[in-house]
Write a structure and sequence with these properties.
globular, 76% helix, 419 residues, Growth Hormone, Chain: A, 15 helices, mainly alpha
Length: 419
């Protein structure tokens, strides 16, 4: 419900700006404004999730989002719409991290991968339903209807929150809104080489995926001369593959298996982008899009299971917030990059470039990632002790790992910049 509300509102706001004749720059500002809080507030949100009972955080953020939706329904000014969308993004930044922490806490190690597969499948279902709902309601009564629906969905989430299992990533109990843990300083991702590699790969593939999304409609409608219906079918094929990949990956168990699935999924996704650049007609895009969707679903679930499974429970909030910050930063960069490349390259060339760069990442660090999955975290109790009590190994940055210096430097820079 939370994801559905967020996406319905985003689509309704886009339709409102377009109907008002607003410049496309306002749409870009809307998208960036909604994502920016996940980047800027990542350290704060992570610490909140580690220190407080997650139910109280969800209660506050969802109630705030419901109020923002009501305010959005009464506004027409583009600057005010963008500002309120940013406020909505603050709530989503809190929600996104808190949901992941509560999910891992409730499922436990034995059911974490399966729970993440179901969560990804639910998110995919929301992304399929949101455009239909937003379009239908806007057609019936203007953009205020989907905005009020979004507010209603957030209100339902608020009312359902007290029924969730008590506890938080840091072990808050009894539903107390007061701090449950120490909230120690430091970035836990710096202490586990596997987490740093995974987050680096996440940044790469979010960038490539969002970059090609900018030009996909031009490939289908312009290069391949297909109808809008075909474009919808291609997007539906991708969603179907994503759903199947997520549910299938939920059956995987063990870090070594998950790491291999992550590398295989990223390689298959990149190959799919390269194949997209070479399709002779739009019909070929359907099986390719299904393959890309399956690969994306496997990659997402394997990434979440490895990251949440490796992170100590008392720092899951910070690790999850870092993951969200990397993904949002990459998305923002990709919107700018995709728009710039579209002015100089054809849609086929953009897809070919994305596929080539995507294949390069697993080739360079795939084996090291699988090898790192076979070892325990550098500091299994990351964040528990004070700075003076940590060992030298725990303090050493992952850039000190052997080999692959250039790619390590790029990954370290991306993650450090996001956090």
């Amino acid at each position: 419900m939370s994801l559905l509300g967020d996406q319905v509102v985003a689509l309704a706001l886009t339709l409102r700006l377009q109907a008002q004749g607003a410049d496309p720059g306002w749409v870009a500002a809307l998208l960036i404004g909604a994502l920016a809080p996940s980047v800027v507030l990542a350290p704060v949100v992570g610490r909140l999730s580690d220190r407080y009972d997650g139910r109280w955080l969800l209660l506050a953020s969802s109630a705030g989002q419901a109020a923002v939706c009501v305010a959005l329904a009464t506004q027409d000014s583009p600057p005010r719409l963008v500002g309120l969308a940013c406020a909505l993004g603050i709530g989503q930044a809190v929600n996104g991290t808190t949901w992941q922490v509560l999910l891992a806490h409730t499922a436990g190690p034995g059911r974490l991968t399966a729970a993440l597969g179901l969560s990804q499948a639910a998110g995919t279902a929301a992304s399929i339903a949101a455009p239909a709902l937003a379009g239908l309601l806007t057609g019936l009564g203007g953009s205020r209807l989907p905005l009020l629906l979004g507010g209603g969905l957030f209100a339902l989430v608020t009312s359902a929150t007290p029924a969730l299992a008590s506890g938080s990533g840091s072990g808050g109990s009894g539903g107390s809104p007061f701090p449950a843990g120490g909230g120690q300083p430091g970035n836990p991702t710096q202490r586990d080489p596997l987490l740093r590699l995974l987050l680096g790969m996440l940044g790469v593939f979010v960038t490539l995926g969002a970059m090609v999304n900018v030009v996909e409609v031009y490939l289908v409608r312009g290069t391949l001369h297909a109808s809008a219906t075909w474009y919808g079918l291609v997007r539906t094929a991708f969603a179907a593959g994503l759903l199947g990949g997520a549910l299938g990956a939920g059956r995987l168990r063990g870090d070594a298996v998950l790491a291999r699935a992550f590398v295989l999924g990223s390689t298959s996704l990149a190959a799919g982008l390269a194949l997209t650049a070479a399709v002779p007609s739009v019909g070929w895009l359907l099986p390719v899009s299904i393959t890309v969707g399956v690969s994306n679903g496997v990659l997402n679930v394997a990434l979440g299971a490895l990251v949440l499974g490796r992170a100590a429970e008392e720092v899951r909030g910070r690790v999850t917030a870092t993951m969200g910050a990397v993904a949002s930063s990459a998305s923002i960069a990709a919107y700018v990059l995709g728009g710039s490349l579209a002015t100089a390259l054809t849609p086929r060339e953009v897809f070919a470039l994305g596929g080539a760069l995507g294949l390069l990442a697993p080739l360079l660090i795939g084996r090291r990632l699988i090898r790192a999955a076979g070892s325990p975290p550098t500091d299994a109790h990351a964040g528990q002790g004070d700075a003076g009590g940590r060992s030298g190994a725990a303090q050493r940055p992952a850039a000190g790992l052997p080999a692959g210096g250039a790619i390590d430097g790029a990954i370290d820079g991306a993650i450090d910049g996001a956090t």
